[in-house]
Design goal:
Helix content is 9%, strand content 40%. By secondary structure, it is mainly β. The radius of gyration is 25 Å and the shape is globular. It starts with 13 loop residues before the first helix and ends with a strand. It is built from 2 helices and 17 strands. The protein folds into 3 domains: 51 residues, no CATH class; 76 residues, Immunoglobulins (Immunoglobulin-like), CATH 2.60.40.10; 93 residues, Immunoglobulin-like (Sandwich), CATH 2.60.40.420. Strands 1, 13, 16 and 17 form a 4-stranded mixed beta sheet that branches. It has a 4-stranded antiparallel beta sheet with strand order 12-2-14-15, with no helix packed on it. The protein has a 4-stranded mixed beta sheet with strand order 4-3-6-9, with no helix packed on it.
Length: 231
């Protein structure tokens, strides 16, 4: 690689590097394009190769099918030892409308704050008896009228069964994921988790009323994992 004057490399943006890589031509970096620049043109062909390969980070997909149950299931990459992920800033909304939790199933990442609304003309309550089967994490948000909301931050992974003590026929679920790598199945049970870094993981399938199933999966490009759940 040819050096610029003053022993500096001219800064090159990724798309410029790609252009140089494909056309094998010299470019002027943006700050130095005028003819009076004291900096020499730099051949960025070698730099382009580095940039192109760095942009192509190793990541793949996990796809497959969940069978043995009907309706939506959730498939996710379980806790990764020594790895944490920033919590999303957006607040998902669970509404109480038509005497139902809408949506019935909500999937969030650990650390997410969920807003619970009441769009019905009657008062509603939200409580849960456990998180991930841990009954010590039971919580009651209270009862509130139409138009108001209550919020809660979920810091523990696992399934959260939503209930209303005013209307016992109401039920729903929030599934709190330990990682951002998750997907819900379609109506036929197919799923696809994208942008999973290459590596070895434990992947778990969850379905309301069924026993979880986990299996080891090694991601190196596109990987497959099928699950058969039972109640």
């Amino acid at each position: 690689m040819e050096l610029c004057s003053r022993n500096h490399f001219a800064p090159t943006l990724p798309w410029q590097a790609w252009s140089s890589f494909t056309k094998n031509e010299e470019v002027y970096p943006p700050p130095f394009r005028n003819k009076e620049s004291k900096f020499m043109k730099c051949n960025v062909t070698i730099l382009a190769v580095v940039v192109v390969f760095s942009l192509a980070a190793s990541a793949g997909t996990i796809s497959g099918k969940v069978s043995g149950v009907s309706g939506e299931s959730v498939v996710y990459v379980d806790t990764i030892q020594g790895k944490t992920f920033p919590a999303p800033t957006e607040h998902p909304v669970v509404d109480q409308k038509g005497l139902m939790f809408q949506p019935h199933l909500t999937v969030v990442q650990v650390g997410t704050t969920v807003d619970f609304l009441n769009s019905d003309k009657v008062a509603h309550n939200v409580f849960w008896t456990s998180v991930g089967g841990n009954k010590k994490l039971t919580h009651n948000l209270g009862t509130w009228p139409q138009g108001e909301k209550r919020s809660f931050k979920f810091d523990n992974p696992g399934a959260v069964p939503l209930l209303c003590n005013v209307h016992p026929e109401m039920s729903g679920y929030i599934v709190v994921m330990p990682t951002p790598y998750q997907a819900m199945t379609d109506k036929t049970g197919n799923y696809k988790i994208e942008n999973v870094p290459d590596g070895s993981y434990t992947v778990t399938a969850w379905h309301e009323g069924a026993k979880n199933q986990s299996k080891p999966v090694t991601v190196a490009g596109d990987s497959k994992a099928d699950f058969t759940l039972s109640k």
